[in-house]
Every structure is written in C-alpha cells, then in structure tokens.
Design brief:
Shape of chain B: globular
Radius of gyration of chain B: 21 Å
Strand content of chain A: under 5%
Number of helices of chain A: 11
Largest sheet of chain B: 8 strands, mixed
Shape of chain A: globular
Largest interface: B-C, 45 and 39 residues
Distance between the termini of chain B: 38 Å
Chains: A mainly alpha (317), B alpha/beta (334), C alpha/beta (336)
Structural class of chain B: alpha/beta
Radius of gyration of chain A: 26 Å
Order of helices and strands of chain A: HHHHHHHHHHHE
Strand order of the largest sheet of chain B: 6-7-8-3-9-10-12-11
Number of helices of chain B: 9
Strand content of chain B: 15-25%
Oligomer: heterotrimer
Chain lengths: 317, 334, 336
Amino acid sequence: MTAVEQVSEVPAPRARVPRLRRVLESPVFATKQSLAGLIILVLFVLVALIGPLFIHGDVREKVGPVFAPPSSKFWLGTDGGGADMVKLLVMGARVSLLVGFAAAAVSALIGGVIGLLSGFVGGKTDIVLMRITDYVLVIPDIPLMIVVAALFGRSLTNIILIIGVIYWTSTARLLRAQTKSIRERVYVQRARALGASNTRLMLRHVLPQLTPLLIANTVLLIAYAIFAETFITFLGLGDPSVVSWGRLIENAFTDDAILNNAWWAIVPPGVCVTIVVLACTMMGQALEDSFNPRLRSGHLSVRRFRLRPVPPPREVE
Amino acid sequence: MSGLLEVEDLHVWFDLPHQRELHVVQGVSFGVDRGERLGLVGESGCGKTTTILALMGLLPPTASVAGRVMLDGEDVLTRGERSLAPRRWKDVSMVFQGAMNAFNPVRRVGEQLVEPMELHGIAGGQMAERRAGELLERVGIPAARARSYPHEFSGGMRQRAAIAMALACNPKLLLADEPTTALDVMVQAQILELLIALANDLGLALILVTHDLPVVAQTCTAAAVMYAGEIVETGPMDALYHGPKHPYTRLLFAATPDLESRDVVVSIPGAPPRLDEAIAGCPFRPRCDRAISRCGVERPRLLQVGHDHEAACHVAERATEPLASGGAGLAGEA
Amino acid sequence: MSGNGSGPLLEVEDLVVRYPVKRGLAGAAAGQQRRYVHAVSGVSFTVSRGEMVALVGESGCGKTTTAQAVLRLVRPESGSVRFDGIDVIGLEPKELRRLRRRMQIIYQDPYESLDPRFRVEATVAEALIVHREGTRTERRRRIEQALELAGLTPPELYLDRYPHELSGGQRQRVAIAASLALGPDLLVADEPVSMLDVSVRAGILTILDELRDRGLAVLMITHDLSTAARFADRICVMYLGRIVEEGPAVQVIEDARHPYTKALLSVVPRRDPRRRVEPQILRGETPNPIDVPPGCRFHPRCPVAVPDCRTIDPELRASAGAAAEGHRAACILADS
C-alpha cells in the first residue's frame, strides 16, 4: 500500500440519521395535503375497526321511527327502516373500506405482476400482455359489472374481484414503464453480468424500486375502488347481506328518502365516500409526485437571491 | 487594481431544511482583466460553479449572497437584478456545463444564435442572421450550417455553437464552466485552442472553471485553486506548478497522472469538510501533510507569497525551499 | 473445464462486432444495402496474469464494445475470445455462468453501479449468493477480505451502510470489492475513475495496481492516456474499431509509431505549464462507424497520409527499429 497516511485513506461514513427522523421525512408527510389525507384515512379506518365493537345486534333492526330527523338520541336520525344512521354508517364504513382496500390490492397485484413481467422480459411477452391490457382497458366497466353480477351472483367477494379485475390497467402501464427504465440501470446490468437469474433480478433489484410507485398508485386505486363499490351497490348489484355506504344510499332511494325530506338518510353516506376518496387522492398524489422521477420539477432560476452583509473576518487568535 | 472584473469577499449560502445553511462560497476574492485567462480549479463541491453563477446573478431563490462584484468599476451585486440584467450576456456571458446539450432540438442553430441578439437589442432580422453566420465562422463552423438543427451537429460542434451563442452580444468577459469535460481529448484540444484564440483576438477575458489541472495548465495564464468554498492559492500557472505554496495545490498536482512524468501518483486521503457546519481553523488541515498546531485554531488568510502569488496557508509563509514529499518531482521534472 | 497454465489468460483474435442499422420497409423495398455500425472490426490482443492492459481511444473507437464482447455481454459477429484456453463465445449458458465467476467487471459510474437498496454487505455478497458459494460465516469472511482488499478498513464499519451514505470513491471501492468476492482471474475496468474526483483517483487505481501484483489480470478501458501511461503495462490504442498501435506502455508513449497515437499524445494536456508540446490538432471529428473510410481508416484525417493510404488497409505489425518486442503499429509509414 502507499505510504502510511496519518489520516485514514478512506474517510469513515457519516453517522446514520436516526430511524424516526427518516420516517418523519417520508414524502407522506411532505405536504399538508397528504398529511391531512393520511389523518382522515386513519380516522376512518379506526372507526371502521373499533366502532363495530360497540355495536351489538343487527344494525338494521328498527330502533326508532322511520326517517326520524337527527336528535340527541339518534345523532343522524334514522333511515327508511328505522335503524340508527350513525350505527349504519359505522358498519358501512367497515364494508366499504374493506372492499376498497381489497379490490385495490387485487388490482395492484394483477397490475404489478403484468407490468413487471412485461417491462422486464420484453419481446413477445410484452406485446401479448400489453394487448391484453388494452382490451381490458376498452371494456366498459358498468356493463361488465352488471353481466358478472348477473352471472355469478352478488357476493362481496365477487364485487371485490370485479373491481380488482377492471382497474389494474393503469398500474400495469405505469409499472411497465418504470421497469423498463430500471432494467437499464447499471446495477441491474452488473448483477446480470454476475450471473444472477432473471427471477432474482426482478424480485431483488427491480421490484424494490417499484414499490414506492406501486404504493402511491394503490392508494389512488383505493379511492377508485371505494367509489366503484358505492356505484355498483347503488345500482342494485351489491351484496344484499351486508351494509355498505353504497347500500345506504341505495336504500335511501328505494325508500323514497327524498320524498320524505330525509336528507340525513342520503347525504351522510355520500359525504363519507367523498371524504375518503378525497383523502386517498390527496395522499396518493403527493406520494406519486415524490416517487415518479419524471414529475420532479427542476430549478427554475427565478434569479431572486437575497443579499446579506459580509460576515466579519474570522478571529485572529 | 481595477481590472474588468473584481470580486471582493464573495459569500454564497444555500438554505437547507431545518434552518440550516450550506456555506458554499466562503469569502472569495479575485480579478480578471481583458485578454487574461484565469482558471478556477477545484474538485466537486469546492464552490467554483456557484462562484461564477453568482457573477451572473444566476442563483436560485434559496441562495443568499454577500460581498462585491465589480464589473468595470460598478458593483453589480448590491443592486440585484436592476444592475445585473442589463449586463447579462452583453458584458458577461457564460458557457454552461453541458451547454452542448442545451440547444432547443426543434429550432435551427442559426435561429438560436439570433435569439439573444434580438433579446438584447444588439441586432435584428437580416443583420442578426448575418452576424450569426459570422459568429459560427469565428468558432470554426461554416456559416451555411446555421440552417442545421442541433442534432445534425456533433458534440464538439455543438459546444462551439454554444460558445458562439455566448459571444452573440460581444461580451467582455466569458465564463466557461467545464467546457470540455464530456468531450474527447482531440475535440477538447480544438475547443481550448478556440478559447485561447478568442481571448487573444477579441481581447476577451476568460474564466475557465474546471477540475482538470492539466487543462488549466495549458490554457490559462493564471489560476485560483479552490477548496471548501475558498481560494487557497492563486497565481501564475508557472508558479503554481513549480512552486506551489499551499499543500492542497501541491498534492492536487501530485494526484494527477502526467504523460511525461514517472512520479508515483498519490491520492489525497480523507474528504472535503462539510460546508453546513462551521470549520475551525484551516479547512484542509485533516488531510494536510504539513499541518502544525496553529492550523487547527486559526483560519489562514490569503497572503502574498510571491509576485502576484497568494496562498492561504500558515506553513506557506515558512517554506522557502521546494516542499519535498508526495509529489516530489514537481520542482525537477524530466 | 481446466485450461492451460501457461500463456496469456485472455486471448482475443480478430474480434468483429457489428450492429445492423435499421433500414425500414421503404429502404428494404428500394433494395438498399443493409448497413452496419462497425463497432469492432478485427481486434486482437492478449492479457496475461499479473498484467494490466489498457484499451485506449476516443468515443466510438469500440473499446467498450470490445470489453463487452470479451465478457460475452454482446454477441460478436466473428472472431474468438479464449479465456484460459476456453472458447468463450461458443459456451453453453450453464458453463458461461461458471466462467463468469472468473471474469468480473467494474463500471464507470459509482453512483449507479450499486443497488441503492442493498447494503454494502448485500452488494458484495450477491456474487457469492448467486453462485451458491460457502456458508454464511464463510461468506462473511470473504466479504470482509474483499472489502479490505479494496481499501475499506475496518470492513465492519462499512458492512451495513447504504450507498447513499458513501462517497463516490467509497462506492467504487465497494464495487471493486463486490467483483473480488468470487476471486476472479480477470477484472475488466470500464473507465473506473473518470467520474471520481482527481484526489481520490489514484487510490482506486492503486488498488488495481496491487491486485495485479497478486496475479490478477486487468483490462482497463479508458480515454485518459495519462492514466494509462502511468498504470498500465501495455497500451492498445484504438481508432474506429481497430487497434492501430499496441505495445508496452512506455514504448507507446515515448516512441509512438502511428500518426494517430502521435497526434493524440500531442494534444493531451500536461501538468507542467512550461511543457508546451506542439499540438497536432486533427481537423474534424472521428467519422461514423457506419461509413468507414476505405483503405486505412485514419487516412482522411492523417497529417502524413500518402496516396497509398487510400487503398491499403495496414496490418498491425512490428515496425523496424522499435525498441521493445511486442510494439506494433498499423501504418505503412510506421518505420520512418
């Protein structure tokens, strides 16, 4: 080795940033918007998880007069069957959120696998998978849902599957593009030159780079899925045995809530859906902005630097 | 000493999250006169690019600046955009790093040369087109090529065109930031030859920013070596190589392989200091092979060590014979 | 799969690599001749154990493609690559994988060649894991050894770091350690220091230097003649897909025979401002590897070309009066 140096040849790496600090710097907290979205979502999830523990018996039981207005006993009144709106909303939250998350997960899985394979393997596989994606994209979702519901029955599982199978295309496209770009990176080439198999390359090198984008995309998918469930159920294709926000809206219509001026039977579930969808969107957008390299904006030099007085000359000992 | 450009005690800070600052340029002073070619040399992070961006006022909003930048005797910094904007491109212009890739791909080269002329009211219409052709000829490209698109030019030609664009409004001072870094050595030679010719023929003052010492050695008349945001040594090229007074200068030369030298090429151990923390004493001390106790306490100032030759080093004041270690061959090369 | 013990480790002979230029339907229908990018047009050289050979040239000369062909990362059109006597090009995939353990590559960009999600230990271990070498403890030991060879001591300090916590020089050392983990016989270094600060370059190059002393063969790709002059044992100067001059580094630098080499040497800037070499600046730029000039590839830009150069494509041969053996140039005027 060259002459012994009194300073180590290679400087020691810097101290680690503590984990908590790193978590706090994660993009989900970057904007007030996304933070608000996260908080709202967490609140709803908590309500959906914990709320039902306090509710005993069948929520749809008649416990008060039909379409009773909000009062101290029933904070949001009662629905067309005399059931407590608040309890209905809480139970509904559970189902709606469940369908939302589950369907988004199904979409993410399908879209992720297709995008990754397509982008990585390329060639004929890519062409075939992308054709399939195009076909699915073109299929009109509502008619398909109606057909599937009619053919296979209206269970919750089917709803989740239908939504999942319709909405994976955007994920697939996004991940395919990202995969293609990651595949060309030097460290992937290096691992390949080392002898790593395609599977290893995909799972260990490419997939971890895709995860942030996948997460961001999935959060947005949750928003779509919840809305889709609401819509499907509202059309009467939902699972009749469960209560979801969509069902509440559907019930309100079939029970002529509007005629009865019972706004509390229609508006609250709609508002809930809207708020959750909004929360997911805010969070998802912020995440996507920070993860998608193309969306990063460069320096637009505004040329408005600030002037300061010259610091005093350093002390001469 | 009033030359074309005088920089006095220039400081630049960049805002960092959590109320911190990066002190990127720490009290830099130098000057250039017409026809002079000054090299601003240093490694990544030393502040050289930020320094010249400050000269043109092209700093982002997260920057704050102190000090004086005198162009032809007028302080352009303190009055901000009002004094900088009229001078930009007309008195001082710049060839940016990667300028060869900064052309608009859908417009012809000639049009892009005409643009600054029209913007600054130098020339317009036919006259501007003719001038564009002349500028291209001056940088060694046939005038007829003004009708080509950037992708039809090779890398070297695009770099020349970028230089032509910088000359569009007849500046007195040209700042070149790593103009040859991405180019092959033969093309590099062409570009450097061009820059020298321009300085000589047009009386242009040139500041060449680069990390490549041999390029500066062959192109510039004098150089300022930067480290950790400040100039640690400045003087004529000859003095810097044959009689460096600052250990960093000496070690940097010693770390640069040379075609004709059999010297052992040695790295400089360690790494530059962080610029977001205050530095006690000399910023180079942890890596220096000549440090004394004073170096850890008192920050050295740029002091005269020879004719037109300054160095910021406590040990330099003592050295009268060539410093012998590491790059020993400097004083007596084959 | 054992090779011969004596003789050069790597033998490249008449290597040709070319890529077709897309013609499109219209072109094909019009009967246009298929054109090629002649990246490498007949390159021959050897690298022995304990030797560092530098492939030097400007962009487009084919040096990187040559290195990729040696590692069989691109498919050559013709020619042979023999590693320890084994024909690399004709190998079955499974055997190629085994051979790949003995040839490793270091890339130019230290900021891109490490997976940002892998800690240093995982990066260096990858080679061992992929080839199923050793147990966990054995691997750990080999990883630490590799890190030490690369100058990262004490290795424990670096094992669980992420690349973004390291400087460029440190990252390149990690890349070197990763390539050393399997104990290769040949290291291909593609511009190993061009993206690093000057003050850290020598450290990296010294590692390669010392590895060579331990018997490793190193093929270094670089555009920097000064680095090649100082560190390589032999230099091969490439131009437009061919080697135009090769020989011991000192010879090629001090007694260049090919006009291109001479011109190149004259324009490399020296450290010493007093050393003003009269630069032979060639006009224009390197022609496109699609349209290779007839005769000697260099003749359109050659300052001393004679009419014969337009028709004769010179062979690489030893020139009269060349001081050392193995110093060859591809120029009909090389003897003068």
